[in-house]
């Protein structure tokens, strides 16, 4: 037989079909997660723990030691017979003890260690349809379809970005991790990996909670005891004694108070729109200063790596705070967007989705971050810019996402 083709005698799809009828958790190819535990970390965060099925373990846990710190999964929940998808950051690493359950922490048995290594943990606020369902309503044992861990909020991606900018990110270089609220969740795995690679690590965490209620406080203290090159600062926005540079908000003064070589420091940030906007303003102010550490005129914006819980980029575009290597502002002109199927139009200088909403027009969406694809539509003509990647489209017919594209010319959409 030519080319040595060997057809499967029993196809995996057929085995999966039969297996799912016997038990919905069984699958050779489809990653699935089963809810096994919930733990309240504080008034804001609930840790939700899952075990993976054979397909998830084989593809995510057993290959290359598991996922990277900072990655996330896309979870599918069926609520009232409707499928909902939401992405959640993974807490820690596959073999990382998270001090969530005393029985696991205090046990040294190989069986419990193996159990801990197979647990998939997310930490989420009990708000929103899917998050409320996961933290309060879903019975233990509920099974969810899941993607494999993915995402670029990783040390590996930081090294690639540094190389593309002709910079080196080698141990023991300086890393700064900035988080607000639930943005702390992807930091556990990232910081553990960074310290294991010899980096000097600083954590700056903003929260409304007192220090004693800070999630994973025991974990951070254990890292501090184990690694002299790890420092953390917890800012309780209601406690002036915890402020850096006498300000409750992230600012240029608070960054400078850390006494870090900022121009050579890679900065990971995860949190609210206000936190990200504050960081952009802070690094812009520092870059503009006549400082010896910035004599080479490099922009600190080049050192930022984002993971966000909202859509920030359209606000930055309007305010002129674009993420450019030459520090020039993008003046976003107002363009006309015509919805051909509805025979309606609106003017906008922000994302297509936000512009339509400001004009009182409802478009399909869910995540508003360019992830879920539910806002995708066809562009008949005109040029748009993807605010996540900076890519400029052609003038022809193509599929785009309204939540992460702004109009650079007049645009016609098939909606």
User: Looking at the structure, what is the overall shape?
Assistant: globular
Work out the strand percent. Answer: 25-35%
What can be said about the biggest beta sheet?
6 strands, antiparallel
Query: From the alpha-carbon coordinates, what is the Rg to the nearest angstrom?
Result: 23 Å
**Average pLDDT number:** 79
Secondary-structure class: alpha/beta
Low-pLDDT segments? 101-114, 309-331
Give the helix level as a range of percent: 25-40%
Instruction: Tell me the strand order in the biggest sheet.
Output: 4-3-6-1-2-5
The termini sit apart by: 51 Å
Taken in chain order, the helices and strands follow as: HEEHEEHHEHEHEHEHEHEHEHEEHEEEEE
- Kindly report the oligomeric state of this protein: single chain
Query: Count the strands?
Result: 18
Q: Report the total helices.
A: 12
What would your notes on this structure say?
By secondary structure, the protein is of the alpha/beta class. β8, α8 and β9 (230-236) form a beta-alpha-beta unit. A 6-stranded antiparallel beta sheet has the order 4-3-6-1-2-5. It contains 12 helices and 18 strands. The N and C termini lie far apart (51 Å).
Structure, briefly:
By secondary structure, the protein is α/β, with parallel strands linked by helices. The chain has helices spanning 12-22, 54-61, 102-106, 110-117, 129-137, 155-164, 187-196, 217-226, 252-256, 273-288, 313-319, 352-358, and strands spanning 32-40, 46-52, 72-79, 82-89, 119-124, 143-146, 174-180, 200-207, 230-236, 265-271, 304-308, 335-339, 344-348, 376-381, 384-386, 398-401, 405-407, 411-413. It has twelve helices and 18 strands.
């Amino acid at each position: 037989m030519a080319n040595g083709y060997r057809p499967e005698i029993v196809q995996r799809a057929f085995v999966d079909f039969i297996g799912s009828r016997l038990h919905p958790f069984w699958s050779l190819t489809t990653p699935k997660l089963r809810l096994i535990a919930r733990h309240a970390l504080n008034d804001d965060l609930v840790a939700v723990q899952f075990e993976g099925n054979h397909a998830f373990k084989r593809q995510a846990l057993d290959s290359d030691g598991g996922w990277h710190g900072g990655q996330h999964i896309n979870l599918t929940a069926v609520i009232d017979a409707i499928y909902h998808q939401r992405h959640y950051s993974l807490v820690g690493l596959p073999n990382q003890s998270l001090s969530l359950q005393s029985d696991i922490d205090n046990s040294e048995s190989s069986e419990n260690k193996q159990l801990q290594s197979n647990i998939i943990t997310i930490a989420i606020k009990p708000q929103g349809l899917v998050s409320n369902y996961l933290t309060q309503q879903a019975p233990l044992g509920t099974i969810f379809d899941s993607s494999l861990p993915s995402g670029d909020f990783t040390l590996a991606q930081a090294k690639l970005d540094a190389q593309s900018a002709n910079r080196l990110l080698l141990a023991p270089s300086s890393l700064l991790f900035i988080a607000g609220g639930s943005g702390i969740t992807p930091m556990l795995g990232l910081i553990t990996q960074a310290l294991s690679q010899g980096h000097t690590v600083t954590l700056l965490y903003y929260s409304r909670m007192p220090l004693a209620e800070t999630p994973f406080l025991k974990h951070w203290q254990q890292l501090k005891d184990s690694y002299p090159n790890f420092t953390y600062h917890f800012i309780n926005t209601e406690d002036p004694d915890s402020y850096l540079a006498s300000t409750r908000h992230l600012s240029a003064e608070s960054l400078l108070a850390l006494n870090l070589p900022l121009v050579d420091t890679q900065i990971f940030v995860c949190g609210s729109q206000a936190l990200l906007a504050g960081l952009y303003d802070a690094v812009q102010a520092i870059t503009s200063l006549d400082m010896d550490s910035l004599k080479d005129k490099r922009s600190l914006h080049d050192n930022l790596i984002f993971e966000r819980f909202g859509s920030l980029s359209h606000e930055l575009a309007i305010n002129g705070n674009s993420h450019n290597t030459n520090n020039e502002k993008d003046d976003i002109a107002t363009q006309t967007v015509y919805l051909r199927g509805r025979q309606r139009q609106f003017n906008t200088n922000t994302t297509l989705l936000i512009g339509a909403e400001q004009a009182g027009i409802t478009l399909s969406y869910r995540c508003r971050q360019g992830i879920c694809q539910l806002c995708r539509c066809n562009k008949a003509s005109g040029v748009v810019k993807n605010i996540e990647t900076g890519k400029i489209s052609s003038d022809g017919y193509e599929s785009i996402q309204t939540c992460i594209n702004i109009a650079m010319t007049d645009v016609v959409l098939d909606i």
